[in-house]
Amino acid sequence: MNTNIFSCNRLDANQHLRSQKVKELIAYCEKCSQEGKVVDIGEVAFKTNLNLMSNTLFSKDLADPSSDSKVELKDVICSIVVEVRKPNLVDFFHILEKIDPQGVNRRATISFGKLFRLFDDLIIEQLEERRRGFSEKCDVLETLLDITEKDPEEMNHNHINSKFTSMDVRFKLDSSGVPAGLAPPSSISAINSSAYFL
What we know:
This protein has one domain (about 1-195). Helices cover about 70% and strands about 0% of the residues. The chain has ten helices and no strands. The radius of gyration is 18 Å and the shape is flat. The two termini are about 25 Å apart.
């Protein structure tokens, strides 16, 4: 399935979207330069990377690089990454799992819930477009929805949510400069399985 989703042909079909996002970033920086405004490189880079990824996944921008508004998704992903990186007693003493003495799993579950609601909204929106016959997209979600239609046993709504969550959190771990391998194993596996517990 991953070969189909991330094939060269599939990614090349959205190359124009990625080029457009980079052009928008350059145009925004030029505009700020002309107006004498300070550019928050970290925020603009995050929004551009988020839009590059979201266009590949959903053919849609999730952040406006020219806006000063905060991106809720960034806060949610950052809170998940913070929890995933924390040393957790449960990783060493599995008997404490039900107690969750540090509250790491509780806080991570709340953040995952917010992330799943965001992805649910995007999935429902694209399903509505498909029902109305407006969906001519060539993105990852469209591919997953095609697989769901053909074989509901292989892929369902929870699987899609879990895949997107895994991609987003790993993207944040990778782009933050700290290898995903440094995160506790139980937290990384929670990324893939937490869709089934919410």
